[in-house]
């Protein structure tokens, strides 16, 4: 059972999840659950080879099966208008081409959608899919990262873009590393991992007319999905509607529009009926991206007193044969510590696999596993406490951009984390602590995550009955977006949260970014803040213009609003109701829409979230079984909007980090280029029994430079560094340094 204490004390009681009741009672409607009378069901047929071409498709037996409405493939697809005409003979797509569904006969990866059966019922579609006969011409595929590593290169897109952050980076003196007093070099490996949210990806596609499309699609950004589909099907944006109101987890798998979504839209066009497609768990391994297999080499130089003098960090990740997925793997290393001499390299390896994508703290979770493991290795070599080593190299300003931090309370995080964890009780020597016949290890790691704020709009409406509606096309993939936004609105307007409704997950709402990169609270939260403030001001002006209004002589700064009742100052006993104002002016509602975005401060400060994790593991000296016994995590993400949901996010991040450290690994059989992990029996994620007490702390100091609400992102920083903290604890317990995740028993005995 996860448990958490909060510090500092919660300033006001957290609002419970506004949609909690809908979710736990099953009343929330998810993408696959929208009812349609004439709904047809689709089943995808995917490639069994990793590279080659489709020689022949025999769809006749399937087409003749009961209930079948269509069997769609590249032979008879209605076609995606934006795709270029197919070349004869078919040519492999150049790098940078997003995968084209049912386009030609070429196969790029095992699991590629090659055909789709649409039928009256799901069972009929499944049965007919088993009757489709496909012959392939196989070509030699390359899916093995380790075997092909020497062919990795700078990404084509990076070569073309001189200002790309993934260009080779060097600062300071290149001779600093060879001449360092103490040196260390190590290579760290992270396997392919899959997001595996409990709700699989699903879509219902509905063509309301030949040029009007509505999709109920599980994704993390209704506006970007709308834009993508409009572009693909050459429709005006407003003729594509995307709804994704409830999402059962995503972790990055829903950031882009994937081939199966386009396939379902094509199918609905073909059969002229609403079509539902739900990905089974096996298809979740090849349809919606993954954390790429990544190998990182870190070299470090330091003085004997533990001052870092040089770091080189080379990261190589895998991508598909048609697209380049770049992630922040090496970027944190440039900003994390006050080191004068730093070099980073980033390379990609094209393999015959589907394209990876962002997953749970993408790039930084990968890079910080290597960096924070290496720091621990260096601390051991120097016989220095790992926390002390980090304090000695604390960056007081951003060493990469030579800018002050907008705010940074990392030292306070370290202090709180160490104290709450009892770090002082750690005996320095590995294998020196034991309990009940088990080896006990204490490990820690730092965490950072870049600040992302995108232009966002929100509309705030006060209705005649005093209730408030706030709207923005933002998303909730689980953290409780509506709850936090309601709380922001309630505080500004002085209205009870019970009177506020927050609408999201609908592309017809005011423009907002998708939920990714921990950007929702910083971006959309600011827009909600601004819209509510504008609405309040408008209402106050309307209120002051009423004859004899007590508000006409009030100082704006002194006005106090509670439960929709406006007092000219804190001492005043007389008040005006919002509803009185609307009534007097005979207005059914008053509304304001505001857009909020970053200003010049973006170039004046370096903006990051910071944090740290402390972990205790117990390891069996006999079986090598690792149990995480407790975790203390502390984050500095500026102002905390809602303690309860923030705490849940931190717990979720730590759980993801434990999975990454100890369990999660997608295994491929390279003879076939096919994953052998295809369900939860083979792809292990933590369950309740794996999760110990997790204590969450926040510094909770507003960062006044980032946005009007002082809040930075929390979702991703909660996982960044956790895997390193676990690995460091395992080293402390056992004396064995595992540099290849996950840390399974075979690597310890
Ligand atoms: Mo997150 S990987 O940006 O959903």
From TrEMBL:
A GO molecular-function annotation: oxidoreductase activity
Q: Can the keyword Signal be found in this entry's annotation?
A: no
The family database entries (InterPro entries) matched by this protein are listed as:
Ald_Oxase/Xan_DH_a/b, Ald_Oxase/Xan_DH_a/b_sf, Ald_Oxase/xanthine_DH-like, AldOxase/xan_DH_MoCoBD1, AldOxase/xan_DH_MoCoBD2, AldOxase/xan_DH_Mopterin-bd_sf
Boundaries of every Aldehyde oxidase/xanthine dehydrogenase a/b hammerhead domain copy: 25-140
One Pfam family, short name: MoCoBD_1
List the Gene3D superfamilies. Aldehyde oxidase/xanthine dehydrogenase, a/b hammerhead, Aldehyde oxidase/xanthine dehydrogenase, molybdopterin binding domain
Tell me the SUPFAM superfamilies matching this sequence.
Answer: CO dehydrogenase molybdoprotein N-domain-like, Molybdenum cofactor-binding domain
**What are the UniProt keywords, alphabetically?**
Molybdenum, Oxidoreductase
Superkingdom of origin organism? Bacteria
**Can you name this protein?**
Xanthine dehydrogenase family protein molybdopterin-binding subunit
- State the organism of origin: Larkinella punicea
């Amino acid at each position: 059972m996860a448990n958490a204490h909060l510090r500092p004390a919660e300033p006001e009681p957290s609002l419970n999840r506004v949609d909690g009741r809908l979710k736990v009672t099953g009343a929330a409607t998810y993408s696959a659950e929208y009812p349609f009378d004439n709904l047809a069901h689709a089943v995808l047929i995917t490639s069994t080879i990793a590279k080659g071409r489709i020689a022949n498709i025999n769809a006749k037996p399937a087409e003749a099966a009961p209930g079948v409405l269509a069997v769609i493939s590249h032979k008879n697809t209605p076609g995606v208008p934006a795709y270029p005409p197919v070349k004869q003979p078919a040519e492999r797509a150049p790098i940078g081409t997003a995968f084209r569904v049912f386009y030609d006969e070429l196969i790029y990866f095992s699991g590629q959608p090659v055909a789709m059966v649409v039928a009256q019922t799901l069972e009929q579609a499944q049965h007919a899919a088993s009757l489709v006969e496909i012959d392939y011409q196989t070509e030699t595929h390359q899916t093995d990262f380790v075997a092909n590593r020497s062919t990795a290169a700078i990404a084509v897109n990076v070569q073309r873009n001189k200002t790309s952050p993934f260009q080779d980076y060097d600062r300071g003196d290149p001779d600093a590393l060879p001449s360092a007093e103490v040196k260390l070099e190590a290579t760290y490996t992270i396997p392919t991992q899959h997001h595996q949210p409990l709700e699989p990806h699903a879509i219902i596609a509905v063509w309301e007319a030949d040029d009007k499309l509505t999709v109920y699609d599980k994704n993390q950004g209704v506006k970007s999905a709308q834009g993508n589909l409009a572009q693909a099907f050459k429709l005006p944006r407003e003729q594509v509607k995307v709804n994704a109101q409830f999402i059962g987890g995503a972790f990055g798998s829903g950031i882009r529009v994937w081939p199966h979504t386009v396939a379902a839209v094509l199918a609905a066009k073909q059969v002229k009926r609403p079509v539902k497609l739900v990905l089974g768990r096996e298809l979740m391994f090849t349809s919606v991206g993954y954390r790429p297999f990544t190998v990182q080499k870190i070299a470090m130089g330091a003085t004997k007193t533990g001052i870092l003098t040089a770091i080189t960090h080379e990261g190589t990740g895998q991508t598909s044969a048609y697209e380049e997925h770049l992630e922040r793997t090496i970027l944190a290393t440039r900003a994390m510590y006050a080191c004068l001499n730093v070099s980073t390299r980033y390379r990609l390896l094209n393999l015959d696999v589907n394209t990876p994508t962002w997953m749970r703290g993408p790039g930084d979770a990968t890079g910080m596993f290597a960096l924070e493991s290496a720091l621990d290795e260096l601390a051991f070599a120097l016989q220095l406490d790992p926390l002390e080593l980090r304090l000695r190299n604390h960056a007081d300003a951003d060493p990469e951009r030579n800018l002050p931090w907008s705010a940074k309370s990392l030292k306070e995080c370290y202090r709180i984390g160490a104290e709450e964890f009892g770090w002082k009780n750690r005996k320095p020597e590995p294998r020196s602590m034991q309990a009940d016949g088990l080896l006990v290890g204490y490990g820690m790691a730092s965490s950072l995550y870049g600040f992302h704020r995108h232009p966002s709009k929100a509309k705030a409406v006060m209705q005649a009955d005093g209730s408030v509606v706030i709207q923005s096309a933002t998303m909730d993939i689980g953290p409780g977006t509506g709850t936090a936004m309601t709380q922001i609105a309630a505080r500004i307007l002085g209205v009870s949260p019970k009177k506020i409704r927050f609408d999201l997950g609908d592309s017809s709402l005011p423009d907002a970014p998708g939920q990714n990169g921990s950007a929702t609270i910083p971006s959309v939260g600011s827009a909600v803040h601004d819209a509510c403030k504008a609405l309040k001001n408008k209402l106050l002006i309307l209120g002051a213009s009423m004859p004899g209004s007590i508000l006409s002589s009030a100082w704006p700064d002194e006005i106090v609003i509670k439960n929709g009742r406006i007092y000219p100052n804190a001492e005043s006993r007389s008040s005006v109701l919002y509803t009185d104002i609307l009534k007097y002016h005979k207005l059914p509602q008053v509304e304001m829409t505001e857009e909020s975005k970053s200003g010049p401060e973006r170039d004046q400060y370096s903006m990051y979230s910071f944090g740290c994790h402390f972990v205790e593991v117990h390891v069996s000296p006999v079986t090598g079984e690792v149990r995480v016994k407790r975790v203390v995590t502390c984050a500095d993400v500026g102002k905390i909007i809602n303690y309860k949901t923030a705490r849940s996010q931190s717990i979720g991040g730590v759980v993801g980090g434990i999975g990454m450290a100890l369990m999660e690994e997608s295994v491929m059989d390279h003879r076939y280029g096919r994953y052998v992990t295809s369900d939860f029996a083979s792809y292990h994620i933590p369950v309740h029994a794996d999760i110990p007490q997790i204590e969450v702390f926040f510094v909770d100091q507003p960062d006044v430079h980032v946005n009007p609400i002082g809040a930075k992102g929390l979702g991703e920083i909660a996982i960044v560094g956790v895997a390193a903290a676990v690995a460091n604890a395992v080293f402390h317990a056992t004396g064995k340094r595992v540099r290849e995740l996950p840390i399974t028993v075979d690597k310890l005995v």
